[in-house]
Design goal:
CATH superfamily of the largest domain: GAF domain
Distance between the termini: 54 Å
CATH architecture of the largest domain: 2-Layer Sandwich
Strand order of the largest sheet: 4-3-7-6-5
Radius of gyration: 25 Å
Number of domains: 2
CATH topology of the largest domain: Beta-Lactamase
Number of helices: 9
Oligomer: single chain
Amino acid sequence: MFNDASHHPPAAAQGKQGPTSESSAEKVLNLLLAFSASGREMGTTELSVKLGLHKSTTSRLIKTLVNAGFLQQNPSTRKYLLGISAYQLGYTASRTLNARLLAVAHPYLYGLAQQTGESVAMEMVSGINIILASHVEGPSHLRFNFQQGEVLPINVAAGAKAILAYSSPDFVESCLQGEFKRFNDRTIVSKEDYRKLLKQVKAEGISYDRGERYEDIHAMAAPIFFADGSPKAAVIIAGPASRLTDSFFRSAVSPLKETAATISRSLDL
């Protein structure tokens, strides 16, 4: 019975092949994802418990990630947090994804502008800010001029409301750290009122700006979802309040939602 050992590698030798390598890679990825999910510093013991790993194994993985710059140690707390390599990788991935989103979305934004006769734009998440990333001018004589790259006040921007309504509570709260600026009597400045509004937006799937920043400008927006279900952008229709009336809003809900949904589906291809 034991003579077969010459023909078959023992279990220990088998463990040194492919499956162990994959298992180690999975452990490293799960360790990094633990920081991504928590967003805070963690120590070796906490990570060991969270990942179900032996403390010595966790220490070895942490040392590897520190040497590669994916983790760094806080000298005061002796705990660990994401390092510069992790942020550089995330920034590169974000730029690649954003560039693809802009390329995919543009023809649909143009189509919506032609269909509704109004200017159309796309707002996008950038860190904890919402920026105006792209726009297409409508065919009407009076058009809304977008300032591409502008950081938008989230308490008034229709796209920001659409994005935050579907975002995680932690991300929403990080965006609500600053004070809301009052532009006019229609501006929401209460954080409590804003949170209630986000719940309403999520229930309806559409957000509005009825002159909350500029009294003569109205807008409406619908969220764009990435493959993981996160809302990182929104499609906006904007124009003079004289044209973007309640009647216009009702007529534009379906084409706006369909445009946002089509862009979302296209990102999955």
